[in-house]
Automatic annotation (TrEMBL):
Residues 24-212 form the Glycosyltransferase subfamily 4-like N-terminal domain. Keywords: Glycosyltransferase, Transferase. Belongs to the glycosyltransferase group 1 family. Glycosyltransferase 4 subfamily. It comes from Chroococcidiopsis cubana SAG 39.79. This is Colanic acid biosynthesis glycosyltransferase WcaL. Residues 224-387 form the Glycosyl transferase family domain. GO terms for molecular function: glycosyltransferase activity.
Length: 430
């Protein structure tokens, strides 16, 4: 098959789930193009090794970057129109149609994102990796800029954070015009159906990890008494790291030997540093910054407990089952996470870890204290967690399923419920 992936930016270190699907398609012999609709990332000095291994930048088409300054945006937009209008003059005029495309035309987002498609593109499958991009997939196909079967994935922000700003009817045209939908968890599938997505046209397809990269190891109480705790993730509001910091600082007064490593970078770094200082917890809590996957694995290999305290952001942003949580569970770590988004589909409370209410510092502290005092449960929790991840989130199995879904969508003249049923059978077979 000839497959196009629509992404906002590529490559992005925080989106390995997209990278895994792209590479999975290439490994299975398919022709892949990547469209980075918001231009190139500002910093390409840090990229996942797979980007270089598979020479993915050579497969990537970048839309022009849209300036934030409105004057520069319009000047650059007019230049882009002048240079490219000859390719498809009628469509170029439509890209500025504010009565049809409203704010997406007025802000010139539609124009900038359409530039790579003015010479018509044809694919078997067009996979929009967030449904906010699915809107543009629908429009580009309607404008005759691209042809192919259209698949759109709901991943999180596009079905949570996006809705308060644009309203519950923002996806109505997408629901009507897209051939098939994926959601990375039942939680987001149900939200999409509640908004109007045909339940027969959507299938849960989780984000996979390469289990072979995260070796399982049973965890035992350390002989030196230093219990090591870890969190991996972007330092942003919805990761809830401030609550884990407060809980660990509280526990450290009773258990001075604990160490808490926070791996990642982001906009809240300075705030979290200030919080750690204010709690006099610098000895116990360390912000380690961004790390390569190999370094993350090395750190987690020395740890005993993993925290993933996700919360619903003030803007409504929510998480699916978090990949960093899957990685920790695959390595045999007992986990503490929250009753949030799709996470309960990954962590079985009291079996592979614990789930606590969002923003509940006392609950996090209580479960941490329990795990420190009852290290005999670490092995059983870790073993169960590994089994759950292997069963539901193994990357190779999920990539096999994704290609099968593509083929079914491409070939299908059956009612959509038949397609979903076949996909479910495939999952059961794996």
């Amino acid at each position: 098959m000839k497959i196009a992936f629509f992404v906002a930016r590529f490559p992005v270190l925080s989106e390995p789930f997209i990278l895994n699907q792209i590479v999975g398609a290439i490994q299975r012999g398919h022709e892949v193009d990547i469209y980075s609709l918001d231009g190139a990332p500002k910093d390409l000095s840090k990229v996942h090794p797979l980007v270089e291994q598979y020479q993915l930048l050579e497969r990537t088409f970048y839309a022009p970057t849209r300036p934030e300054n409105e004057l520069w945006r319009w000047l650059k937009g007019l230049i882009l129109l002048a240079i490219n209008c000859y390719k498809n003059p009628l469509v170029c005029l439509q890209l500025l149609n504010t009565s049809r495309y409203l704010s997406q035309a007025k802000s010139l987002k539609l124009l900038y994102r359409a530039i790579p498609f003015l010479n018509k593109k044809s694919y078997d499958i067009i996979h929009c990796q967030f449904s906010t991009l699915g809107v543009f997939g629908v429009w580009f196909r309607q404008l005759g800029l691209i042809e192919g079967k259209l698949i759109s994935t709901f991943r999180g922000a596009d079905i949570s954070k996006f809705l308060p700003k644009w309203g519950d009817r923002v996806y109505q045209e997408v629901f009507q015009e897209t051939d098939f939908f994926l959601a990375n968890c039942e939680f987001f599938k149900n939200k999409a159906v509640a908004l109007g997505c045909d339940s027969d046209k959507i299938h849960v397809h989780g984000s996979g990890i390469d289990c072979s990269k995260f070796a399982y190891k049973p965890r035992f109480f350390p002989t030196d008494g230093k219990v090591k705790i870890a969190t991996t993730g972007r330092l942003v509001e919805k990761k809830g790291i401030e609550y884990a910091i407060a809980a660990v600082a509280q526990i450290a007064q009773t258990y001075p030997n604990i160490e808490y490593y926070i791996i990642g970078d982001g906009e809240l770094k300075a705030d979290l540093e200030q919080l750690i200082t204010g709690l006099n917890a610098e000895r116990a809590i360390k912000l380690l910054g961004w790390k390569q996957q190999k370094e993350i694995v090395e750190i987690l290999d020395t740890c005993h407990i993993f925290l993933a305290p996700s919360v619903t952001g003030a803007d409504g942003n929510q998480d699916a089952p978090v990949n960093t949580l899957k990685e920790a569970m695959a390595m045999g770590l007992p986990v503490i996470s929250t009753l949030h988004g799709g996470i309960p589909e990954l962590v079985e409370d009291g079996v592979s870890g614990f789930l606590v209410p969002e923003r509940d510092i006392e609950a996090i502290a209580t479960k941490l204290e329990f795990l420190i005092e009852h290290s005999e449960v670490w092995q059983s929790m870790g073993k169960t967690g590994r089994a759950q991840v292997e069963a539901k989130y193994d990357m190779d199995k999920l990539n096999d399923e994704l290609i099968e879904i593509y083929q079914q969508v491409l070939d299908s003249k059956l009612p959509q419920h038949s397609l979903t049923d076949r996909s479910l059978l495939l999952t059961a077979n794996h």
